[in-house]
């Protein structure tokens, strides 16, 4: 399997979906927004973007199944599955606030082998494939070389429906506010991970995540020289609903802080 070839073809799919999303920004109306759950929204743009992506990906790898946010397709019993978020950052999109992204990953078994994150507003395509480097619009990228949390800019995502860990999360957030360059919450986990990969952030952590939020971005971080784990330091970040991603120089210290508060 030529993962580089598949990745580059997937970039074109993500860009096509992004162009569609961009064309719909001005036409979005409140009546087009549905509520999936507490503070969890979906628009016709999400659904149509996913339909477009799925139809194009079937042409690239017909035998692959789908794990998609809006429920298109079914998970394959075979080796390969696409993991898709057709519009990561829907709440941002509804309010006309960037970033919002298209996230597409390909998994072989339990391993992510292709990852593409296209941030629509800035026309930035981040991508990587197993065994290769990480790229932003054809330019190789690497994670930050900063070496301490105190010298880092941190990204996170606020819980919007799962408040079971809210107190330890807030305690961890308070520590990071006091002992880093600052904490940012952009509203798109896929973009957060892409920004770790290119060195804009040194680290990112969040809980309550889904596979389509993180699969593509996690691979891009790893191929850019970063480290991605779950809160316990293990490999269960794609399906485990929790993730720590950081520059390799910062990850050990950052993970120990997250463990201290989120895994007492």
List keywords for this structure.
alpha+beta, Fructose-1,6-Bisphosphatase, Chain A, domain 1, D-Maltodextrin-Binding Protein, domain 2, 2 domains, seven-stranded mixed sheet, five-stranded mixed sheet, 7 helices, 14 strands
Indicate the topology.
Layout: H1 3-24, E1 33-37, E2 40-43, H2 44-60, E3 65-68, E4 80-88, H3 90-94, E5 101-108, E6 111-119, E7 124-129, E8 134-136, E9 139-141, E10 153-156, H4 166-178, E11 182-184, H5 189-197, E12 203-207, H6 211-223, E13 226-229, E14 242-247, H7 251-262
Parallel strand pairs: 3-4, 10-11, 10-12
Antiparallel strand pairs: 1-2, 4-5, 5-6, 6-7, 7-8, 8-9, 12-14, 13-14
Helix pairs in contact: 1-2, 4-7, 5-6
Written description of the protein model:
With 264 residues, the protein is an alpha+beta fold. It has two domains: 3-141, Fructose-1,6-Bisphosphatase, Chain A, domain 1 (2-Layer Sandwich); 149-262, D-Maltodextrin-Binding Protein, domain 2 (3-Layer(aba) Sandwich). It has helices at residues 3-24, 44-60, 90-94, 166-178, 189-197, 211-223, 251-262, and strands spanning 33-37, 40-43, 65-68, 80-88, 101-108, 111-119, 124-129, 134-136, 139-141, 153-156, 182-184, 203-207, 226-229, 242-247. Strand 7 (124-129) and strand 8 form a beta hairpin. Residues 36-41 have low confidence and may be disordered.
Rg, Cα atoms, Å: 17 Å
N-to-C order of helices and strands: HEEHEEHEEEEEEHEHEHEEH
Look at the helices and sheets and give the structural class: alpha+beta
- The number of domains: 2
List unreliable stretches of 5+ residues: 36-41
Which CATH architecture of the largest domain would you pick? Answer: 2-Layer Sandwich
The CA-CA distance between the termini, in Å, is 43 Å
- The beta-strand count equals 14
- Look at the structure and give the CATH class of the largest domain: Alpha Beta
The name of the CATH topology of the largest domain is: Fructose-1,6-Bisphosphatase, Chain A, domain 1
Chain-averaged pLDDT: 91
Give a quick account of the main beta sheet: strands, pairing sense, barrel closure.
7 strands, mixed
Strand order of the largest sheet: 3-4-5-6-7-8-9
The CATH superfamily of the largest domain appears as: Fructose-1,6-Bisphosphatase, subunit A, domain 1
**Number of alpha- plus pi-helical segments:** 7
Helix percent band: 25-40%
